[in-house]
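re: ur question from earlier - yeah i can do the single chain one, its not a big deal. heres the input i used so u can compare w yours
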Amino acid sequence: MVADALAYALLPGAGIVLLLATLWVLWIFGATVEDSMNRPRFVALYAAGALVAAGVQALAGTGGGVAVVAGSGATAAVLGGYLVLYPRAAVISFLLTVVVEVPAPVLAVLWAGVLLLALGLPTALAPLAGAACGAAVVRVLAQRRKAFRPRIPVY
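and the output i got, formated as tokens:
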């Protein structure tokens, strides 16, 4: 029963808008962060963000479901980790009918705006704590990648 509650706590549950925002963030940023570490370390980053968000929510006593903020905190940890690993990265996005490159910090601010609209200010503090956790922990979990060297010299 406790395992079920912990498993559900990692999923977003505040409605379709937050679910779509979570899937969008994981689709854009999750694979890149996971590539910087192995899969168990990525799961540890995700779970750490969820636990920190749930803890902040419990300490703040703002009400709301812990599952909502834990899932958002886990996603925020991935986003915070991405911003630390790739602070100047640009993401190719669609803006109406035009393809544009948007800096990752701008997309992070948009995601935080969706959080504020979906959850409200007091409850949105917990996912922001998850983002801070991801930013703090990602350097420890990320592994250095060897530089790619072609076998045949390219001139």
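The chain has six helices and two strands. not sure if urs matches, ping me
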